[in-house]
C-alpha cells in the first residue's frame, strides 16, 4: 500500500481534494470501462439507441446502489485491515477485490442457480444468458435461506463489536454501557441472535421456518468457525513469520465472508432492476471498486481514529441491515431504504464525531 496520503499534511483545500480524488483513480477508470461495456452490451442485445441508454442507466444505478449499501462495509473492512500486516492488507485489497467482484457478483449467483435448479455451471451460464426471467425466478426463490444466513452472520458481527468488555469508547452511552457490562457473560451474542431467529421464524410457514432456521444456524456456525480459525492462527502470530502470515489469513477469510454477507442484499435486489446477470455484474462490480477505494482511504488517513464514533455508526448499520434481511422474507423492503438507512446512521455518527472533536479542541484551548 502506498503511504503519504495524509489529509492533514497538505496546505490548501485544493491539495486535500486532489489527494482524496487520487484514492478513487482506479474506481473512475473501472467506472468508465464498465459503463462503456454496459452500453456495448445494451447495443448488441437491443440494437437500438433507447435500449443502449437503458442498459447504461441500469449499470449506473446498480453502481450507486452498491455504493450506498456498502459504506458500512468499507468502514468495517478498514477496522479489520488496520490491524493486519502491510502484506496482508495488500493481498486483501488486490485478490480480495477480485474475489468480491467476480466471486460474489458472478460466481455466487451462478452457484445458487446450480444448487437450486440442480444443473451444471455451464447450463446455469446458458440459462442466465438465454432465459434471464427463469434465472431471476430461481434467484428470488433462493432468497429465504440467503437472507437467514447473511442476516445471522451480520448480526453476530455487529453485536460482537458492542459486547466487548475492553471497549472504552461509547457513542450511545446508555445502551453501550449496558452491553459492555454484560459482555463477560459467555455466549450472550449467540443467545440474542438465536432468540431473534426464533422470533422471526415463528412468522413463517412450517417448511419456510425450517429452511430459515437451518440457514441461520449455518450463518452462525460460519461466523464462529471463522472466529475460531482466526484465533487459532493469530495465537501463534508473534512466534514465527509463517505464523504471522497465517494470522493474516484468518483475518482475510473473515473479511471475505463479511463481504459476501454484505453482498447478498445487493445481488438479490439488483434483480428488481434487471434480470441480466452480466449487467448486474458490471453495475455491482463498479460499486465494489469504490468500496475498495474508500477502504484504502480510511486505513491510510487514519479516519477511524480521527472520527471516534464512525465505527459505531457502521456497526449499528450492520445490525439494522441484519434485521432488514430477517424481515425481507416477510415483506419486501426497497433497497433504497436499506442504503439510506445505513448512510444516515453513519452520517449521524460522523456528525457526532465532529462535534466531539470541536468540544475537545475548545476545552484544550
Automatic annotation (TrEMBL):
InterPro entries: DUF475. The keyword Membrane applies. It comes from the Bacteria. Keywords: Membrane, Transmembrane, Transmembrane helix. The chain crosses the membrane at residues 23-43, 49-71, 92-122, 142-163, 183-205, 211-233, 270-291, 312-330, 336-354. NCBIfam families: PRK14013.1-3, PRK14013.2-2, PRK14013.2-6. This is DUF475 domain-containing protein. It comes from Paracoccus aestuariivivens.
